[in-house]
Hints:
CATH class: Mainly Beta
Order of helices and strands: HEEHEEEEEEEEH
Number of strands: 10
Largest sheet: 10 strands, antiparallel, barrel
Strand content: over 45%
Oligomer: single chain
Number of helices: 3
CATH superfamily: Calycin beta-barrel core domain
Structural class: mainly beta
Strand order of the largest sheet: 1-2-3-4-5-6-7-8-9-10
Amino acid sequence: MRLNVPMTMMNFFRKSEGIWLTQRNVHHFDVVGDESGESNLIVKVIEPDDLRVQKVCSLGNIKPDRAKGGASFNWQANTKDSEPNPDYEAVLIDIPDDETGLTGKIIRDKGYVEGIPVVSRYWFGRDGILTINTDYENNQGQERCWFITDDFRVRVSTVKMMNGVNLMTYCSERRCVSPERLDKMVQNHH
């Protein structure tokens, strides 16, 4: 199976759309506590005409006409059957530097490390690895993400405090099969 590697943020968001089972390992350098575990990551693509684009762009003082769209990311314990809690949702808007889409800014309504609006820089390497750098008020974060297959991806991140690296995270993510897709797979198998 040949993997089509996304090389723009919107292609990355589209390839990421769906529900992912995230298995995460977290290493704190200064805290005794384990945040490792499993959760669901729910990704939904946001088109450029969505009202959230204008709202989030205003948080970053960016003209909404520069936005190519975005995605909402919602985290949920994987044992929950209820709807995801909107308090755990972040909206990311793509502002590419140019028409290639290989580099740009992501405007977030909530940062991952500090729950405040934040602007991140991103770029895609020739190998398809997405790197996102974020400067918060008191921290710096870097996240790298890449697809191994269409339905399996890896994320690694570090958070640096002023005195050095404070946190490292490794996540492996497997796409969950929707009931509709599962039914289709069963029908095709028979």
